[in-house]
């Protein structure tokens, strides 16, 4: 069964940087795709994976 993400939203930082992404809902998780080339598809993360990623971003663990 194929699940299609819904409610795509562009990153608020996309206006400041050349690396633009969009996030959509998939079940209780998320899908992420490149805004500039949507034909490349997307990757998905379940709720737990997505929350771990958000926590890492919020605590500046990525530089």
Word description of this protein:
The protein is of the alpha+beta class and 63 residues long. It has one domain. It has one helix at residues 47-58; strands at 6-10, 21-26, 29-34, 43-45. Strands 1-2-3-4 form a four-stranded antiparallel β-sheet. 5% of the residues are buried.
Assembly state of the chains shown:
single chain
What structural class do the secondary elements suggest?
alpha+beta
Distance between the termini: 37 Å
What would the principal axes of the Cα set say about the shape?
flat
Number of domains: 1
- Amount of beta strand: 25-35%
Low-confidence stretches: none
Trace the largest sheet across and list its strands. Answer: 1-2-3-4
Taking the sheet with the most strands, its summary is:
4 strands, antiparallel
Order of helices and strands: EEEEH
Radius of gyration over all CA atoms, rounded: 12 Å
Strand runs, count? 4
Helix content: 10-25%
| Mean model confidence by pLDDT | 86
Q: Total number of helical segments? A: 1
